Amino acid sequence: MEVMTSPVRNMPNSKQLQNYPDDAQEFGYQPEWGLYTSSFVFRGDFTNDLKLLQDKYGYKPLQVTQQFDNQVTDRNLGTIISSVAFRSSDGTVHTHRHPGDIDETPELFQYTPAYYDMTTIRNIIDWFGDSVCRCRIFRQEPGKDLPMHYDFDNERNSFDNQNQTLRALIQLTPNTENWMRFKSKTSDITLRPAAGQAIVFNADWVWHGTVNYTDKPRDCLMLILKDQDFVMNLGKRFPSHKIEFIEV
Ligand SMILES: [Fe+2]
What we know:
Elements: E1 35-43, H1 47-57, E2 60-61, H2 66-71, H3 77-80, E3 81-88, E4 110-111, H4 113-117, H5 121-127, E5 132-140, E6 145-149, E7 166-171, E8 178-183, E9 188-191, E10 197-201, E11 207-212, E12 218-225, H6 228-232, H7 234-237, E13 244-247
Parallel strand pairs: 1-13
Antiparallel strand pairs: 1-10, 2-3, 3-4, 3-5, 5-12, 6-11, 7-10, 7-12, 8-9, 8-11
The structure holds fe (ii) ion.
Fe (ii) ion binds next to loops.
């Protein structure tokens, strides 16, 4: 029997395959519909930073926007999620929205006092470099779930897929029963990300939701990133299946 080459991308067949295909290095995260979950993990002791955030700044309920109301009419976001901003449009800790209709770019945002008070969390923010726009930590209250929804970051750039605004989520508290689901045109992924693991996605295209089954708050860092090439290159920077720990 003749062994056929795969009709898809001329993939080699099992007899031809000695190594992974030549173009394997080009495989990886495609922001429009894909999901990136990192093979690197930030590792640090966030206890003091989280306590300071609670004591000095207090987590404030996240505002429920009209856009959210349009998506999910029966959720009361303020009782589910609260937040403190590290980068915001006015430099204050409780402003978390991008106020304008113009494209979200890093120079529109400034660090807040909470950023400067951090000892470990700010090292993660700094690691992402110049592409960070808004940045906040949010707290998902014990036992609460945030239903599947979209966010609206890319409306401001007319959904330009060469200039996507992406979200990175990094849970800081140890994960025992905090689950996330991401669903797009090509994927349906439910996972329990490790503390310090980075997840990146386009929140306008990738439907997402999260549930906290524990009796403890879930603290999660959220960064809005403007440089999609930076994110697409993470796979090449960390090519191994072995986890690389980044001490912060
Ligand atoms: Fe969201």
